[in-house]
Queue: 4 jobs
Job 1
Amino acid sequence: VHVWMTNFQTHGHAPDDLVAQFKAEGRFCIKRDGTVTDALCPSDPRNQDLQIAAMVEAAHRPGVAGVHFDYIRYPSGDTCFCEGCRERFGRYVGQPVGNWPADVLAGGVLRDRWLEFRRANITRVVREVSETVRREVPGCMISAAVFRNYPQCADEVGQDWVAWARAGYLDFVCPMNYT
């Protein structure tokens, strides 16, 4: 069995009571216009740790030959602009972000660092799953469903899958080619 895991997604993938709990805890992505999405914020360490633990737990199950990341990314370039992202990004760059979100949008003075921050959040999950699974469940393969439009997807949704493959975090990728 190669276990297919949906990462950061809740719509149709999580019980209603858990979704309500996560909403109450402010763990969902927020669009630039303030709309709350149905995806967990990838910069929130609680959400990162949840994804890592689920992937590692799946790898430990009897008969599992591999684990597969799906939705291992931000939902879009228009997310996430929650207060947690603002605070965590400020720590990442070593200064508060005064003109939020304008400073991180296209043309903003912190745009490049913002894109780097987003890639780092997703990469942390992939790296930690890879390192833990390779140490604890040798031989378990690790794969990911990835956008075919590299390198744009690295900036648009934080999915730097070529870097993950080069670093050895993944054994193979499955480019999403639905059309």
Note: Residues 111-136 form the longest helix (26 residues).
Job 2
Amino acid sequence: MNKQQLLKSLKEMGFSKKILDAFSSVKREDFVPSELKDNAYEDTPLPIGSGQTISQPYTIAVMLSELDLKKGQKVLELGSGCGYVLALISEIVGNEGNVFGVEILSELAKKSKENLENYNNIKIYNKSGFHGLSEQAPFDRILVSAACRELPEALLGQLKEGGILVLPKGPRFEQEIIVFQRKGNVFEIKKKIPGFIFVPFVE
């Protein structure tokens, strides 16, 4: 599958123009190991080293859709890996938005900084994301890109009122994507989408 075929497939699945435009603008081949560049537009996860993967484009598109991103928003991704999703988020929120990535694995954090050096509105932290990123809170949107067995409670206070949190939750080989919205001091579940497999959240 090439880039145009992937975009056609995502369009046929009903994803919005702003998500399709982001996928069109960002070169996935820049975020995968050199030996996998020929496979960059397959709709499948690919290994990026350190036991981690770059998620399947369809899965990313689902999560971005549920985040309901807007221009100018402040967004946090935990488990930002090679930086591909950060780039997509940046394209959607625009230059007036701010995007923060937290990646615990130093080699991936370093690589993602290199991958994203041309993006002025993205900042990456090499640390555990289990407690979020309090020094930059609050956020309009929070995305967790690795599977959690439990909801990291620290994230509640870092999400703005009415803000949206998207994360995969469940045991090792079967998770559902859960969409939460902050209403006062509770996370209200808006949606559950079953049938996904993510790498485990590294604490």
Note: The helical segments are 3-12, 17-25, 57-67, 84-93, 106-115.
Job 3
Amino acid sequence: MTLPAIPYNTLVVAAGVAAVGFAAGVIGSLGVLRRRALAGDAAAHATLAGVAAAFAVTGSRSLPVLLLGAFVAAVASLGLLVLIRRHTRTRDDAATAIVLGVSFGIGIVLLSGITARGIPGGGGLEQFLLGHTAALTAGDAAILASVSAAAVLVLWLGLKEATLVAFDPAFAAASGWPVTAIDYALVALVAVMVVVGLPAAGAVLVTALVVIPPVAARQWTDRVGTMLLLAGLIGLVSAIAGVAASAVMPRLATGPTIVLVAAAIFGLSLLFAPRRGRAARPLRLRGGSRRT
């Protein structure tokens, strides 16, 4: 009995999305520990405006061009978020909600305008809302994998400093480390992964790629290195499973499926993780009573 051949396009998509899933889990771990997950959400919703603006200015549907526009918009939204937090009395959650809603509204208006004016090549840009993995080429997948690998490398080079700032920023500042610069660099890395994850999950769901795997991994360990590795593996498995399910059932959207697989892994972790799992709690109590 011979196994059916896997289509080339499916392999291309799986390779690119798997690299994004792994890197998103790793980068997101420090973002979650530093409590910067909501900032990533604001950046994610701003990317839609960046995609639309990049197309309107250049007329190009090239993925690097659109992702560059998305990155500029993400950085601009984060800069606006910082300004609101520093120069107003608005709380962090309210400031995030303002930036998120306004930037996403701008993106929808720009996309609607491009569609209404019938600009050649403008059709289909709305696919960035939920991802469009089926349109990925081998070159696109290589770009996504390369940027993801570079982001992981940057984090690895500064892991000690990033970990110190994540857990004890006051001590890091007293020790002479540039806490603000490290904090901004970490947020920038999260923004990079949000942008790179656009083809996989879209502007609406891409934040889940940098939040759910780290939160699931946190249930299993207290060590930062182990958490980063587990989060990366959870993101990778979720990505491959989502692509595989979408290949078997073509009408099944890949991005939402990836998120649902990651959510299922989080649910299992919440129940069965040895030290924090709810289902394992009676066993922990029983073991404690025996030692007593």
Note: Residues 46 and 223 are 33 Å apart (CA to CA).
Job 4
Amino acid sequence: PARSLAHFHGYAGLLVLFLYTTLELKAFLYWGLASFKGGGVSVLWALYAMSFVGFGIWKNLKGLRLTGLLLFAVVVGKVFFVDLGQTPMIYRALAFLLVGAALLIGAFAYMKAAPKFQRKEEG
């Protein structure tokens, strides 16, 4: 019970940190770079997603890995459907290429590390 309570508090702390840094970044960008507010939040969320997946692979935490992958999906949807809504076509194409490359690199790293956490779940 103590271990599950520790996991609960750890994930709750990460959620509070995620929400706090998102709100702080939005406030900072509102006063400094208002035109980059949406993109800045997407970048922050992508950094969180990468760190969740990376730490989940390193420490073999399935919940953290899945949370990171879900956050990646949210970021990709946000970038394509919200952030790029009014941008010129060349920037959309560049964004598609960069996000695609990042997803390929992430998928390769995830597949490379998959045997590590699959053995742990089986054993």
Note: The longest helix spans residues 89-122.
